[in-house]
Amino acid sequence: MSLFERVAAAFREPGAADGADGDATEGTADGGGRPVSNGSDDPSAGTDGGDAGEGAAADGRSGSDDDGPADDETTDAVVAVCQRAPEGVRTYTLDVEAEGAEVVEVTPGVLEAHFEVIEGGVGHDSVRVRAVDFRGEARRVEAETLVGVRFAAPVPLPDVRMRLVSAEDHDGDTLPSEWFRIASVS
Fold first, then answer.
1. Is 20 inside any structural domain?
2. Which residue has the higher pLDDT, 107 or 112?
3. What distance in Å separates the CA atoms of residue 185 and residue 136, rounded to the nearest whole number?
4. 8 A C-beta contact, residue 9 and residue 2
5. Cα 137 to Cα 61: distance, rounded to the nearest angstrom
6. Over the Cα atoms of the chain, what is R_g?
7. Comparing C-alpha atoms, which of 4, 37, 18, 1 is closest to residue 142?
8. Any idea what the Cα angle at residue 130 is, between residues 41 and 160, rounded to 5°?
9. Count of domains observed in the chain
10. Does 21 map to a domain?
């Protein structure tokens, strides 16, 4: 099973299949994924609270996690997830970095047809990716993986960061950074 297939199942929010509405930024993902917390009960902590199109520093640590990651908790793979986007995701650009770690794999998620690594990537400690939905693959999004990144060796979770550079829905509106998070993959 590919990294994308494993995380696609792991990040379905409870009730997502039956159309239940709820706050998708709360709770933990089931099936092997664990959200990375910013250590605060405030989901906007660690961000500037602005929209992604304004260069929001969405470090990916939104979403609540009662305990937060332990300082010694490590992972060798993470995924960037869009928790919800009622009008879909038309385009996004985001960075994933882990200082001192080596990226060995970058895997596209829901927008794989028009996905590209534009900076860093394999052999570097960071990667900037962008994708565009020309085929309607992400018309409606509920806990969809945008990109998976695998490292050569386990990395402490607090050292892994995501920065949402920009994200737009199919109506041309900027998506709020609070709808995005990064999570470890077991």
1. no
2. 107
3. 27
4. no
5. 26
6. 15
7. 18
8. 40
9. 1
10. no
pTM of the model: 0.65
Contact call for residues 93 and 128 (beta carbons, < 8 A)? yes
Q: What is the CB neighbour count within 10 angstroms for residue 166?
A: 18
Strands (E), the chain: 33-35, 74-85, 91-98, 103-108, 115-120, 126-132, 141-156, 160-168, 180-185
The answer to whether residue 127 sits within a structural domain is yes
Looking at residue 9, its pLDDT comes to: 52
d(CA 167, CA 174): 6
Q: Give the structural domain span for 137.
A: 3-14+27-185
Q: Which strands form 103-108's sheet, in the order they lie side by side?
A: 33-35, 180-185, 74-85, 141-156, 103-108
Q: How confident is the model at residue 64 (pLDDT cuts 50, 70, 90)?
A: very low
Q: What is the pLDDT of residue 178?
A: 92
What pLDDT is recorded for position 149? Answer: 96
Look up the CATH number of the domain holding residue 110: 2.60.40
22 located within any domain: no
How remote is the C-alpha of 160 from its chain's centroid? Answer: 11
- pLDDT (tens digit, 9 = 90+) per residue, 25-43? 333 333 333 333 333 333 3
The amino acid that residue 76 corresponds to is D
